[in-house]
Design goal:
Length: 162
């Protein structure tokens, strides 16, 4: 009898634990930055497909940098091609990486920090139309190459409408 109670407790604990985990991303891809120095000509490309036009999709930039990164922000140029579009839209976004006191806002592990920053593409791009989306990123700071950037990525989360 005690064995069955122990098994039941393990099953209940496993169910509770997995119920608290965040849902996996709809899409996520990360690229390592060569020699941790992001040059203007290195433009990672992310391709993903939207299949459910009734869902809400939220894009995030994933960025990993060292604590030696010398700025509190990062300017990016995003080049966005929507399904069936002939024109690539360009959005300039500013990622805030540190608070006004200079404390990094991302999760830290040793001397590295990872940021996940929500990006609003503006009114020109909504992730609503089914099809293939293509987004490329270019660092748009005044320094080239930009040192202490370890990797950059795109994460898209999907939320079902109620």
């Amino acid at each position: 009898m005690l064995k069955y109670v122990q098994i039941a407790l393990v099953i209940v604990a496993a169910t509770l634990f997995t119920g608290c985990l965040p849902a996996p991303p709809y899409f996520q891809k990360v690229y390592s930055i060569p020699q941790n120095q992001w040059s203007f000509n290195y433009k990672p490309v992310f391709k993903f497909e939207i299949t459910d036009s009734n869902a809400v999709y939220k894009p995030y930039i994933v960025l990993k940098h060292s604590e030696a990164y010398q700025f509190s922000n990062l300017w990016l140029l995003l080049y966005i091609k929507t399904p069936g579009a002939k024109v690539i839209k360009q959005e300039r976004v500013n990622l805030t990486l540190a608070d006004p006191a200079g404390v990094w806002m991302g999760r830290g592990l040793g001397a590295t920090f990872e940021e996940r920053v929500y990006v609003d593409f503006g009114d020109s791009v909504k992730l609503k139309q089914p099809g293939i989306y293509e987004i490329s990123m270019e660092q748009n700071m005044r320094v080239n190459p930009l040192p202490e950037i370890l990797h950059v990525g795109l994460r898209v989360e999907q939320f079902k409408k109620n």
